[in-house]
Structure prediction request, 185 residues.
Amino acid sequence: MSRPAVFFDRDGVVNLSPGAGYVLRWQDFHFSPGIIEALKLCQTRGYATILATSQQGVGKGLMSQATLDDIHAQMQAELAKHGAAFDGIYACTCLSKDPSCTCRKPSAEMLLRAAADHHLDLQHSLMVGDADRDIQMGENAGVPLTIRIESENPHLITATYTLPDTSGLAALLQTCLAYLPDGVE
Prediction:
């Protein structure tokens, strides 16, 4: 049986944006205000929570895959303390100019792979991101509701909802999830 999911971008949504750089070590990873509450709400309602992130810092050689995995493991450990750990983490580490890459946003590949791995119902799911490529990825995967967290990224694609930051994300998700079926435990 499939269940709905809430998909989250990482930098600028789950954690504070590192600006033009990259989060290259755990010490530079800082959760965004309200994100733990939002993740816990999704978990409580039975929604799968999936992280879909582009991390080309690995492709550029600025950090290793092992370092990225360590950052995500420590993130998961901290989230688990609050009952808010992700059900799945998908990261595209390809360079943006890699012609052989099929997973880079706005490709739907990460969401489609997550849907297959976790038996997800994309038609009753949500996408939360801070860039056009996040919103477009959700739309490309058939996710009907998208939430944009405002950022310095220019945007040409309109999301279903827009928030100035993540502090009000849990309240908006509460409203959105009220109109969607509960997930299946």
User: Anything to note?
Assistant: The chain has one domain: 5-178. The mean pLDDT is 94.
